[in-house]
What we know:
Blueprint: E1 4-8, H1 14-27, E2 32-33, H2 42-51, H3 59-78, E3 82-86, H4 94-100, E4 106-111, H5 114-127, E5 132-137, E6 153-157, H6 167-180, E7 186-192, H7 197-204, H8 210-226, E8 235-242, E9 247-254, E10 258-262, E11 267-271, E12 276-283, H9 287-296, E13 299-306, E14 312-319
Parallel strand pairs: 1-5, 2-12, 3-4, 3-6, 4-5, 6-7
Antiparallel strand pairs: 7-14, 8-9, 9-12, 10-11, 13-14
Helix pairs in contact: 2-8
Amino acid sequence: MNDFELTRTLDEHAADRALREDVLHGLTRFPKVLPPKWFYDARGSELFEEITRLPEYYPTRAEREILLERAQEIAAVTGARTLVELGSGSSEKTRHLIDALPALEAYVPVDVSESALTGAAHALLAEHPGLRVHALLADFTKPLRLPDTPAPRLVVFLGGTIGNLLPPERAVFLKAVRAMLSPGDALLMGTDLVKEGSVLVAAYDDAQGVTAEFNRNVLAVIDRELDADFRPGDFDHVAVWNREEEWIEMRLRARSELAVKIRALDLVVPFEAGEEILTEVSAKFRREGVQKELATAGLELVQWWTDAAGRFALSLSVAHGAGPVGSGAG
């Protein structure tokens, strides 16, 4: 039996088309905006891994703490035979769950990077020879058709990535997740929690300047992929705590008046001195807000765990009226 299967829902030109569309629409509007997904080329992924090890950046450590402490409990509550991970990347954190799920038969990682999917799959199969991996090359923000795998399923969405979606986008996303769940299935979701603004800003504007380089890397991606002439050094990295919206905003601020040519789009983008590009929103949450958003999507919060310092939370939810977690038929 072949233990690894890959289903492609994106063609080889999908990323190029999406980048062109996002850059054209985002840099010709005011205020200018670029989606955070374009941070993550090979260099951006390396920089993010470095960020997760910085003393100021607590979310990765806090979430890992919860996973290590609660993995056995999550396994016991869900009885999952299939683990579905949205935005799986290297599947690093998921290993704690895979190790703890005694009934697990199948793992379904979902990501836009084929190299990340295949690399993670081969590493996991070497560690878990009996596991079946059915990877989906797909955009998790779009409706997904999951492969036929044993129930019950545990869908996981870790890293606080839900915070990168604006509230209307979160509503659409959570309803799409609800549509994936059958009776007995569950959603495990990571959310960064509201805390002091100074702590949050430091996490997104570290003293070593790694996050600044990560933020500017989106300009290097556009230069390479769309034959542009951004000079990343012409832009300052800015991280701001928006107290009213309760989210962090990452921006790139032009140091002087300039014009950038994006040849692949036959486009010239003017910037005033001090003009900004919004590159990321990272919402922070409170338990009551998470519970309300889940309920609006037809999901019921059944478990809530935080790290010891109360900085980050994992929530477990099920479809309204779906019966006990882990009760799905095999």
